[in-house]
Amino acid sequence: MSAARAGSLRLTHWHGHVGALAAPAPLAAWLTAPGSLTARLIAHSDAFRVQRLHQRRALCLADEAAAIGMARPGRVLEREVLLRCDGAAVVFAHTVVPLSDSATDWPLFGGLGERSLGSTLFYDPLVRRGALAFARLRASHPLVLRATAALGPAGAASSMYYARRCLYRRHQGSLLVTEVFLPPVLALQPTTLIKNVK
Questions:
Q1: What is the pLDDT of residues 87-98, one digit of tens each?
Q2: Domain locations in the chain as residue ranges
Q3: Three-class SS of residue 20?
Q4: Which of 49, 126, 161, 190 lies 20 to 30 Å (CA to CA) from residue 103?
């Protein structure tokens, strides 16, 4: 791990209460919104899309290892997507699953494509959802760097980003989802009633 990457991770502190972030009220509302984020985004746009960036084996981040039961950072199955509302990227979502988890634990994960992972998690009765944790991420954080790289020069830039993450369990498997909220999320306005997404 490079010194820059290690330093960036040392600046990341995950908190159990969103108040610790001193986030602007509109962002705090997105961070703490209950239920499916996918359903909420659909209710704030006319056209919602999951843009898959990749799904592959990778090395998990240092602050993810303990959360998913690993003694140290190691190889995981990683999925990264941009969630787009009316064309604008509003959330960068990063998911890691230990390689030791089986297809029985997460049977649909490998074939999601550009379907929403959140919809699968929220409507599977076998999935147990943990508590949300919240963080402020500097522009130098690895996940922010990945998000901005995916967005390219036209992407909205900021010196600070707000994120949340949640650990899901199914059978013996663990799955950690981190959602980084991008500046355009603040421009979203409700367009429909929030509804179930399947």
A1: 999 999 999 999
A2: 3-187
A3: helix
A4: 49
